[in-house]
Amino acid sequence: MVPANVSVENRVSVENQASKPSETAPHHAGMGAILTQQGVAFRVWAPHAEAVSVVGDFNDWQETRHPLSQEYREQLEDHEQAGTAPESVASGFWYGEVTGLSVGAEYLYALKLGEKWMTRIDPYAKEVTNSVGHAVVTDPHFDWQNDAFELPPRNELIIYEMHIGTFAKDAGDGQPGTLSSAIRQLDHLRRTGVNCVEIMPLAEFAGDFSWGYNPAHIFAVESSYGGPKAFKEFVREAHQRGIGVILDVVYNHFGPSDLSLWQFDGWNENQLGGIYFYNDWRAETPWGSTRPDYGRPEVRQYLCDNALHWLEDFHCDGLRFDMTLYIRSVRGDGDPGGDLPDGWSLTQWINREIHARHPQALTIAEDLHNKDDLTAPVERGGAAFSAQWDARFVHPVREVLIEPDDDDRSLDSIKGAIFATFNGDPFERVIYTESHDEVANGKARIPSEVMPLETRNWFAQKRATLGLALVMTTPGIPMVFQGQEFLEDGWFRDDVPLDWDKAIELKGILRLFRDLCHLRLNNKGVSRGLTGSGLALLYEDHTAKTLVFHRWHTPAPHDDIVVILNFYREPRQVEFNFPNAATWQLELNSDARIYSPEFANTPCIDQLNLQDEATNPAHHVSLEVGPYSALIFSRQT
Predict the structure, then answer these.
(1) Could you check whether 32-120 and 528-635 share the same CATH topology?
(2) Alpha carbon of 551 to those of 520, 561, 576, 586, 630: distances in Å?
């Protein structure tokens, strides 16, 4: 409880005096509730308010008890030439300090408009009681236990997309999963080889159940998931297990419900959102007319501050930007009249700031329109994202896997998915067959798409695992969606948790996923080629539906990899030339019965000795590959 004699000091800090935000140094530490030696200082942007105060249980929610003062800046334009003294003008920011206040205090801002007062949740609130409740003064101190984790380079990542509300939860409790319950399953991920999780948005949203793409308070961690301390604990525990954390952020729209930002200080045009939003046709998005105003300096600063907040305050290792198409375009229809140059320059600035301050951090764009510019550097006009989700992989590969008629499977589609790059770099793309979007909205998990009523039968298991093998052996950053490692079926819902019993019942499939991960990361020291950009097609048979390709990092032993794929329901014979004279070891046969009693266990020679060039100068082989299966060979000598 805060003492009843709390007073407010309405002074302006010269060092932190607000001015028109410039794109130089984000200042999120100087906004919102700021702990001081004497109490808590508050700074808020409300240019149209006549008065602003902070209210809470410490002053019985009385608007007149603790007023904030306007901050001023000097208006210097033309004064030097005219020889006149500069004038001070209101900056739109309000500041004050409440002495004696401490961590845990609940508060709101009270803004006066005419004769009326209205309360608003702090836009920079790092914790809220709920989406329509109160802001909470949070403690910035946390025992990170010497956390010095560094994310592996892009070519050594395996990403696991996770939804906190359904990943791990107590059965039958009627509540969403929490960050604490998710920690309990991190050892499961560590054992598989996954080294990075991508968390679906956890900024405070309306209600307790959501995908997270309806952010109400972008600096606060969802209260039903456990709040900010729980997220810091999750990141710390993930890092201690060698697992990085990428967070999904939503800047293409806010809300649209429970938005305290809406008409924040009373001003608006056209009955739209006010100072934080566009107030004309540019406000329109597929989720409501709530697009932030990317051209307003204070809003640009707000979004850049938020991006750095997750990296610096929570030690996140990267960010995935939701649907950047609607940051750079109003309607996403290709009409240049709907382009948003301010949105494009905003992503450039945020990426520039992130890469300068946190060189190891990864920024990922979900745009799905195959634009090299998204991952091109700023100096070439690009947005400078580290990578982007690749629609040229997920859509054609899913179509091939789901297609019921083997003869209609397109190897050209598979080849296009394997060989695609952005700016000539395959590791500027994230490749996957399942994501939250691909297993909902009328679509389902691969096993359910293949066999809707018999998701554990042979066809479902074989084609789903063939897809996993393709993801793990194709150049790019592989990503799986939660539960894909044990063939979770159905479709994604935010109120249906993963069925962890499948991890036991389908332990062979889980073992296959683990073996693929360990090969992908070269954990046995024999498959470094899967981390390289080298790629060549060795064989294709469009009738038999078989394909062979070569992967390498450098031309050296334990580096070359050959991958053989069969997209047909029967075993197939493949005849082709290996890349060079060497001993080649079979590292994985996805048709092995150790992975499922349903599999055929089609035999394949464990080792090929192709060093005798006198008898076999072309390194020619004939191999049988099982139905809907993959073989992976490594070069030993």
Answers:
(1) yes
(2) 11, 5, 15, 15, 14
| 3-state DSSP of 466-494 | HHHHHHHHCCCEEEEECCHHHCCCCCCCC
For the full predicted model, state whether its pTM sits above 0.90. yes
Residues 558-610 pLDDT 10s: 899 999 999 999 999 999 999 989 999 999 999 999 999 999 999 999 999 99
At the fourth CATH level, the homologous superfamily of domain 528-635 is Golgi alpha-mannosidase II (2.60.40.1180)
- Residue 385 to residue 373: CA distance in whole angstroms: 9
Which residue's structure tokens are 């309000």? 94
Q: Which amino acid is at 610?
A: L
Q: At what angle do helices 411-419 and 458-473 cross, to 10 degrees?
A: 30
Structure tokens, 269:
């045009």
Distances (CA, A) of 456 to 453, 460, 492, 591: 9, 6, 18, 15
Contact (Cβ atoms closer than 8 angstroms) between residue 277 and residue 104:
no
- Is 212 in contact with 248 (CB distance < 8 Å)? yes
pLDDT in tens, 76-129: 555 555 666 667 788 999 999 999 999 999 999 999 999 999 999 999 999 999
Residue whose structure tokens are 């962890």: 500
**How far apart are the C-alpha atoms of 273 and 228, rounded to whole Å?**
28
Q: Residue 177: name the closest of 187, 188, 162 by CA.
A: 162
Residues that are catalytic: 322, 366
Handedness of CA 205, 210, 211, 213 (dihedral sign): negative
3-class secondary-structure state, position 167: helix
Burial class (CB in 10 A: 0-12, 13-18, 19+), 164: buried
Least Cα distance to 396 among 369, 440, 432 occurs for 432
CATH of domain 32-120: 2.60.40.10
| Tokens, residue 218 | 């972008």
